[in-house]
Write a structure and sequence with these properties.
about 200 residues; alpha+beta; seven-stranded mixed beta sheet; two-stranded antiparallel sheet; 5 helices; about 30% helix; about 25% strand
Length: about 200
């Protein structure tokens, strides 16, 4: 049976302000106030696992141990079927440069690799999000969420972040990069993972 969350403040194990704002928006109806790891000056642990759930566990347990509070972490990325589900857990790594993350470069790499193998259209892809809620005693609960779609080119839209301008979710004509931020949040992989988390820990 899923352990319930009983507090009204939840530590989110992220230093990403965009993710923190999304989580705050999604959890607000449930009377939960969120605080980010960055606000507590927690170090960012190395993500050394080869799966979303493995990396999410690292972040959640590190934050819970450091603070004595239950901590929710997120690991997410895009899987492109024709690239054997790459970049997957290396979604952010594809964007790393010496001066910070360049997601335009990462999207160009994805497109280039698809072109090199002449991948057929539609080029199926999914965004994946895995949430892990960890308690200081070492217990955790896992909540996955995915949204299916396709990779498109050229890039479209300036909303969102990451690979949003090349991902068009099924049933929609717009990419995540063209959608209103809160409309995207309503249907995103993170929204689905949060819905599973809410059902499991608040239901």
């Amino acid at each position: 049976m899923t352990r319930k969350f009983t507090g009204d403040r939840l530590l989110i194990a992220t230093h990403n302000q965009g993710k923190l704002e999304e989580m705050a928006h999604l959890l607000k109806p449930h009377g939960v106030t969120v605080i980010g790891a960055g606000e507590l000056n927690l170090p960012e642990p190395d993500e050394t696992e080869s799966s979303f759930v493995g990396n999410a566990r690292i972040k959640a347990h590190a934050a819970a141990r450091a603070t004595g509070l239950p901590a929710l972490s997120d690991d997410s990325g895009i899987e492109i079927e024709a690239l054997n589900n790459a970049p997957g857990v290396y979604t952010a790594d594809w964007a790393e440069t010496l001066t910070g993350r360049d997601f335009t470069m990462a999207m160009e790499r994805a497109h280039r690799e698809l072109e090199e193998i002449n991948a057929p259209h539609p080029r199926r892809a999914r965004f994946c999000c895995t949430l892990v809620l960890a308690w200081p005693d070492g217990h955790d609960e896992v909540f996955p969420g995915t949204v299916e779609g396709q990779v498109v080119w050229p890039m479209r839209g300036t909303q969102g972040h990451g690979y949003d301008p090349i991902f068009q979710p099924d049933g929609h004509d717009l990419t995540f990069g063209e959608m209103d931020r809160w409309e995207k949040n309503r249907i995103s992989h993170r929204a689905r993972a949060v819905a599973n988390f809410v059902e499991g820990c608040f239901g």
